[in-house]
């Protein structure tokens, strides 16, 4: 290896090291800055907890270590500074949102693993008149991504839909080149719009139900804890679907004009997707199991709106669905279940899961120490109810 190459690599390594050191230092630095600021009306232990909060936020933003590990800092810092004994801090992490997200993530994994999401997407694309132009194709990708994201968490919906969107965009580009009789034609705008369509659609669908984005149940949990107001699945969904429907046209217009697809028309689009639909064949046992669990979860979520069942609330349903997925066999003779222990390890975004749980725990700690009430007085002192939002 030549001397310039060695020097370049050493410079890159040095920059990475300095960057990491900065990202590590920024957390304690924020802690000491907040700790040094005199905050009238705030008890010393609450002041210390608020300084820890600044440290955690800084590390969540710069991420020198995983989010999940950063979220566990209160277990070390709160007892160290006398803000709260470790027994009480540990109790903050026993959040119901943990099991809600665990069930939703595993359901999303099963949805993708057994191919039900692909079947749904191909079924929509095979509808006559849907896949006839590039712009219409992008619109359908946004809509399908929104529907999928409403049923599973956003990360799972992106993982499900990106390969489908890319394969569909490639077919559209190849079909356009074939019909135009132009060799070597490329469709970068269509590929870009298709990928962004998945992201935008997932964002829109994530608002539709509490299961759409990991932070939806976090918001519901904090609202209930801070104000005592309970939001049901039906309440959120009735509002969320309206927001989803309102944002989809906006996202579509942004994609249409910022990345206009080169493909004006798609020859044999309906035939292609019909063939893809035929290749999928009949519903597999795994798909049937996942569909059954989806129906059970939706029924249980909406049932409290019609029948008064005390134990049945928004948090109860995902663990039920998760348990059924592990109990329903795909092949009884071989003992293969819809989900296995391997799926439990690989199908959960543990970093995001613990980020949400630790965020809820931290918020609960701030409430118990009186910090939120102190902030409320400061923030709302000169604001009216109409200006505050």
Question: How would you describe this structure to a colleague?
Answer:
38% of the residues are buried. The protein is mainly alpha-helical. The longest helix has 34 residues, at 3-36. Strand 1 and strand 2 form a beta hairpin. The protein is globular, with a radius of gyration of 25 Å. Helix content is 72%, strand content 1%. Helix 1 (3-36) runs antiparallel to helix 2 (44-62) and helix 8 packs antiparallel against helix 12. The mean pLDDT is 85. It has a two-stranded antiparallel sheet.
Kindly list the characteristics that best describe this protein.
single chain, 389 residues, mainly alpha, two-stranded antiparallel sheet, 2 strands, 1% strand, globular
Q: How far is the N terminus from the C terminus?
A: 60 Å
The mean pLDDT is: 85
Can you summarize the main beta sheet? 2 strands, antiparallel
- Strands of the largest sheet, in order across it? 1-2
Number of strands: 2
So what's the oligomer here? single chain
- Strand content is under 5%
* Form type: globular
Query: What's the helix-strand series?
Result: HHHHHHHHHHHHHHHEEHHH
Enumerate the spans where pLDDT stays under 50 for 5 or more consecutive residues.
none
Helical/strand content category: mainly alpha
Q: Helix share of residues? A: over 70%
Please report the number of helical segments: 18
Helices and strands, with pairings:
Blueprint: H1 3-36, H2 44-62, H3 67-70, H4 73-80, H5 86-92, H6 96-113, H7 116-125, H8 134-151, H9 154-180, H10 188-206, H11 215-227, H12 233-258, H13 269-280, H14 285-302, H15 317-327, E1 329-331, E2 336-337, H16 341-346, H17 350-368, H18 371-380
Antiparallel strand pairs: 1-2
Helix pairs in contact: 1-2, 2-4, 6-9, 6-15, 6-17, 7-8, 7-13, 8-9, 8-10, 8-12, 9-10, 10-12, 11-17, 14-15
């Amino acid at each position: 290896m030549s001397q310039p190459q060695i020097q370049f690599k050493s410079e890159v390594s040095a920059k990475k090291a300095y960057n990491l050191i900065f990202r590590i230092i920024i957390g304690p630095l924020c802690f000491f800055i907040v700790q040094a600021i005199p905050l009238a009306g705030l008890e010393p232990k609450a002041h210390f907890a608020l300084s820890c909060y600044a440290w955690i936020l800084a590390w969540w933003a710069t991420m020198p270590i995983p989010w999940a590990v950063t979220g566990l800092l209160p277990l070390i810092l709160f007892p160290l500074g006398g803000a709260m004994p470790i027994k009480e801090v540990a109790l903050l992490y026993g959040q119901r949102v943990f099991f809600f997200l665990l069930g939703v993530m595993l359901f999303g994994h099963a949805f993708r693993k057994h191919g039900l999401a692909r079947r749904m997407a191909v079924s929509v694309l095979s509808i006559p008149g849907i896949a006839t132009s590039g712009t219409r194709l992008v619109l359908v990708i946004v809509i399908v991504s929104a529907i999928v994201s409403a049923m599973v968490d956003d990360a799972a919906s992106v993982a499900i839909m990106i390969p489908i969107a890319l394969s569909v965009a490639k077919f559209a580009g190849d079909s356009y080149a074939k019909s135009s009789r132009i060799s070597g034609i490329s469709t970068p705008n269509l590929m870009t719009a298709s990928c962004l369509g998945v992201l935008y659609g997932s964002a829109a669908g994530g608002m539709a139900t509490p299961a759409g984005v990991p932070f939806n149940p976090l918001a519901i949990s904090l609202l209930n804890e801070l104000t005592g107001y309970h939001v049901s699945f039906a309440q959120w969904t009735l509002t969320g679907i309206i927001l989803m429907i309102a944002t989809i046209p906006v996202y579509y217009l942004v994609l249409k004009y910022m990345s206009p697809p080169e493909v004006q028309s798609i020859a044999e689009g309906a035939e292609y997707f019909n063939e893809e639909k035929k290749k999928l064949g009949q519903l597999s046992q795994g798909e049937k199991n996942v569909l059954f669990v989806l129906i059970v979860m939706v029924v249980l979520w909406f049932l409290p709106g019609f029948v008064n069942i005390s134990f049945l609330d928004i948090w109860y349903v995902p663990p039920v669905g998760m348990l059924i997925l592990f109990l329903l066999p795909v092949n009884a003779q071989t003992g293969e279940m819809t989900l296995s222990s391997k799926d439990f390890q690989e199908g959960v975004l543990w970093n995001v899961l613990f980020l949400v749980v630790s965020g809820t725990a931290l918020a609960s700690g701030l409430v118990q120490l009186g910090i939120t009430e102190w902030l409320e007085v400061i923030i709302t002192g000169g604001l009216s109810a109409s200006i505050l939002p």
